[in-house]
Amino acid sequence: MKIAVCQINTTVGDFDGNVGKISNNLKKAREAGCDLALFPELTLTGYPPRDLLDRFSFYEKAQRALDQVAKEAKGIVAVMGTILENKESGNPLYNAAVAVQDGKILYTYKKVLLPNYDVFDEARYFAPAPHPEPPFSHKGLKIAVTICEDIWNVEGVFTHRLYAKDPVEELAKAKPDLILNLSASPFHHAKLSVRQTLLKDVTRKAHAPILYCNLVGGNDELIFDGCSMSMDGSGNLFQLGKSFEEDFFVYDTENPSLKPAQSLESETAKIYQALVVGTKDYVHKCSFEKVLIGLSGGIDSALVACLAAEALGSENVMGVTMPSPFSSKGSVDDSKSLARALGIEFKEIPITPLYETGLKTLYPAFKNLPKDTAEENIQARLRGLLLMALSNKFNRLVLSTGNKSELAVGYCTLYGDMCGGLAVISDVPKTLVYQLARYANRKEEMIPEATFTKPPSAELRPNQTDQDSLPPYETLDAILRLYIEENQPPSKIEKAGFDAKLVQEILKKINQNEYKRRQMAPGLKVTTKAFGMGRRVPIAQKFNEE
Amino acid sequence: MKIAVCQINTTVGDFDGNVGKISNNLKKAREAGCDLALFPELTLTGYPPRDLLDRFSFYEKAQRALDQVAKEAKGIVAVMGTILENKESGNPLYNAAVAVQDGKILYTYKKVLLPNYDVFDEARYFAPAPHPEPPFSHKGLKIAVTICEDIWNVEGVFTHRLYAKDPVEELAKAKPDLILNLSASPFHHAKLSVRQTLLKDVTRKAHAPILYCNLVGGNDELIFDGCSMSMDGSGNLFQLGKSFEEDFFVYDTENPSLKPAQSLESETAKIYQALVVGTKDYVHKCSFEKVLIGLSGGIDSALVACLAAEALGSENVMGVTMPSPFSSKGSVDDSKSLARALGIEFKEIPITPLYETGLKTLYPAFKNLPKDTAEENIQARLRGLLLMALSNKFNRLVLSTGNKSELAVGYCTLYGDMCGGLAVISDVPKTLVYQLARYANRKEEMIPEATFTKPPSAELRPNQTDQDSLPPYETLDAILRLYIEENQPPSKIEKAGFDAKLVQEILKKINQNEYKRRQMAPGLKVTTKAFGMGRRVPIAQKFNEE
Asked: Where are the alpha helices (DSSP H) in A395-472?
């Protein structure tokens, strides 16, 4: 039997668009002689639909979309993800997979394991099935279905077992000939190898090949990388779908042909591509075409400009430099060179007159008090105000350019440089920003060399550099990774070789600046723990971590 | 046996402070001849600790706090809430109640039902106990313990059963002499009567009196109203704790004396008091003393100033009026009168010079394009910038003044009037703002009459009023309530008597402005569905509700 793995980019709530993509893929699958076509998790609704799931009309539209696909699946079985009603006690919906053909529903499967950690809230919406539905038969094959997390509890892969049940173990008892998995598994660095280890374990346990269809594309903070797979019953990888783009491949159960796996060359390349897709999909799925970026002459905004130009086309990107009395000539020149190299529109709008008027306006209140962060923030906020004015006037989405290191310690201005609809690199530590910026220059020099070599500076007072108030970024990023991503207590961070006082200072800054991050734009997640929906920390609290 | 119900205001992560409050109450309870003292849910950690629960040192501190309370509970049983470790599969913690005395743990109970809807994320952190722990015996009484949600699944009270299990039913089989409940049940309007209905049903089912100890005080978005209760086995309310302040009362099982229930006179008064406490606790638990409010002359900022003065003392509140070329003289005068009546500090800082410099600065980009919301937003953002400058310079928290109606339809400026650390009335619809403002004037006129009678206006262009772009607030608020709070589909909203086209327009505006609300400050929740952590809607999506 030939099975098509249809790795598509769905949009949350876009039932017509999602059904359209399914129809196109069914056509392609029929033309390729397939008997079955497999789609990602929650194909009809998009992932994650979040609280739209509370709307009854959302459910009704999903039902209508299911009927429509059933009718269009002529002579082929479509296995797609959707929501179904739970009439018993518990949450009112199931996260389900439905197999349809010729207007009929052949089989339904309800997700057993509902992830409810980090960015996942599935226990908020769905009732878990008590057991996995037994396999269904088609063309003489016993086909088992699973949905994403259902295959993530294989013993031996993770140290702490989140779930008592293992649906794979239960399904293995039915001796399936084939396992299907519909996934919406978001990207973070090095995740592909975790998934491969997992799938191998599933095939070993069930002695059956697995077809893994993962979602691709960006939805708010989440970027799905695709990388769908087919693996034989001994855990050999046969096919690997494209990273970060739609793909379609056919697995022949009788004659599985080894297609060499094509993966992006490096982790840096993957993260870069993730950010390109995340930016593109956020902007387009929000119905925008054009964006606006404040260019400071620094590495962060330069990287965001490169990503945006690649994501949206340079004709849709505008860079704006907004020099203050403290901006170096180099910064303006570097921004100009960057804009020229990228071929993006460029504007220079000085903030000095506004800044001076602001100081005069505030003089009756500030009198001769010494200058401090208040005056620095005024500059950042005037830039935010100008970007937003251009955004409003010309209907361009502002991309904010803050990196993870500065958002962590609050080295950023709320309503200033934090302005924007999408925080493109909010999950990228500063040291990785440099690596990604090098990658952006891989073909030709987009970002001028000076932007790499000069000491990073906010240029909000004379001769300021980031290292006046922060440790070197190598040190800061290492501490941040241990604390935020690896969730280590301070004692362990110190044991990793960092000064106890410095660690305390950094941790204090992280916690004191939660209020800024609460108001940040959605940011693209590329690490195991990003600021945003996957990290929920109270603001009014008094926990001093020791 | 005499039992003290200790309704205290805990702070998240403030282990020392929380233990201190427990100690004081144990002393009081001993002095009153009590054998047992009951505290609210998660007493030691504060509620809700959210992702602080992921930190191992948070767990360690909770363990140490438990040991400390155990030692201090000399000759009295303290029943308090804390976190305990789950060593089996599943989430690593339990939400537990522990009874301690004389340095020993007498009994532990683990929460069975974990709320994971609206503002609750308990399935993110905790493992549910499979069954309620049987009652423990003390001084000849069989005492059953329950935690908050455990008593919220009584059959017949709610139409849809969220849980298959009913811990009360199971506990009733053991024929307890008394039921204790440790709660952290947040306030929303009319909630007290829901709780009373529920408790009555529990006592009827278990044929035993119940002592209900609820948390009091604000923690980020949530306001706990206290209103702890004692009820006899026939569902008669014996005692009712104070609303919105700490309280302590003693229930004598042998001689339960009916203390007349003291509840605030009206729902308006309750909501007003909720906002006062929410503001006070947010500001203080964030370690601030002083606040700053932009006064527009309108009803929203006037109400917030009254609430702040009551919450923090008028000496800690500063009002700033920032007139533009489009501000009426009345607006400035009304703000002045308000500040004078409240006895708060007052500043007038005109934005006209900044606005004019801004227009000049943007002229090369804007040229002679017609004026639109871009110019209106510049004014709002300049005001935000000035408030934030004062906030930075004088270490005052900015309170933002947007109401629920305008946040719903996006009639507010991101980074402008949305600036602030706390959105005091973001869950208060405009029509209720007027009622609360009248209540603020209950003793003497704080808010000038003109503020009530003039048509509401953002004053961002000549002769603008809110009703240029919005329906009358009575209509708007009614539609918003049906859509947001009651989760009605548009067809039902229309059937309630609203124009179909208007309903579509409003719903479209609500959904289009999700991006603004994603970046709003935490807002105090007073209705059944507030914007913020309890309403999680994707931004990049294409769901058209019909």
From this structure: 404-409, 430-440, 449-453
Token pair recorded at residue A126: 């769905």
Would the CB atoms of B357 and A357 count as touching at under 8 Å? yes
Eight-class DSSP state of A110: E
CATH numeric code, A2-256: 3.60.110.10
Q: What are the structure tokens assigned to A70, written together?
A: 């059933």
- Dihedral angle at the C-alpha atoms of B254, B255, B257, B258, nearest 10 degrees? 60
With a CB-CB cutoff of 8 Å, which residues 49-88 of chain A face chain B?
49-52, 54-58, 61, 88
Contact indicator for B416, B410 with CB cutoff of 8 Å:
no
Using the Cβ of B368 and the Cβ atoms of chain A, whether some distance falls under 8 Å is answered with: no
Say how far apart CA B429 and CA B432 lie, in whole Å: 5
CB contact under 8 A, A536 and B121: yes
Angstrom distance (rounded) from CA B426 to CA B530 = 8
Q: Which of A51, A50, A40 is nearest to A18 (CA)?
A: A40
What are the C-alpha distances in Å from B315 to residues A231, A232, B291, B310? 70, 74, 10, 10
The helix/strand/coil state of A402 is: coil
CB B222 within 8 A of CB B186: yes
Can you tell me whether residue B47 is helix, strand or coil?
Answer: coil
Spell out the domain ranges in chain A.
Answer: 2-256, 270-456+513-518
Cα distances from A275 to residues A40, A296, A403, A522, in angstroms, run: 21, 20, 13, 13
SS3 (DSSP) at B123: helix
Tell me which fold the domain B270-518 belongs to: Rossmann fold (3.40.50)
Mean pLDDT on A398-405:
98
Cβ(A140)–Cβ(A149) under 8 Å?
no
Cis, peptide link before residue A489, omega less than 30° from 0 = no
Among B542, B544, B545, B546, most A C-beta atoms within 10 A, so best to mutate, is B542
User: In angstroms, what is the C-alpha Rg of chain B?
Assistant: 25
Give the architecture-level CATH label for domain B2-253.
Answer: 4-Layer Sandwich (3.60)
B 115-134: CB under 8 A from A: 116-117, 121, 123-124
* Gap between the Cα atoms of A205 and A155, Å rounded: 10
Interface of A with B in 318-337 (CB under 8 A): none
Placement of tokens 């529990």 in the chain: B202
Q: Evaluate whether B304 touches B437 at the Cβ level (below 8 Å).
A: no
- A270-456+513-518 CATH pick, 3.40.50.620, 3.40.50.150, 3.40.50.720, 1.20.120.140: 3.40.50.620
C-alpha dist (Å) from residue A479 to A425, A434, A513: 19, 18, 16
Question: What does each of the 546 residues of chain B score in pLDDT, given as a tens digit?
Answer: 999 999 999 999 999 999 999 999 999 999 999 999 999 999 999 999 999 999 999 999 999 999 999 999 999 999 999 999 999 999 999 999 999 999 999 999 999 999 999 999 999 999 999 999 999 999 999 999 999 999 998 766 666 788 989 999 999 999 999 999 999 999 998 888 889 999 999 999 999 999 999 999 999 999 999 999 999 999 999 999 999 999 999 999 998 777 766 666 789 999 999 999 999 999 999 999 999 999 999 999 999 999 999 999 999 999 999 999 899 888 999 999 999 999 999 999 999 999 999 999 999 999 999 999 999 999 999 999 999 999 999 999 999 999 999 999 999 999 999 999 999 999 999 999 999 999 999 999 999 999 999 999 988 888 888 888 899 999 999 999 999 999 999 999 999 999 999 999 999 999 999 999 999 999 999 999 999 999 999 999 999 887
- Residue count of chain B, please give it: 546
Q: How far is B160 from chain A (nearest CA, A)?
A: 7
Which tokens sit at A498?
Answer: 């960092």
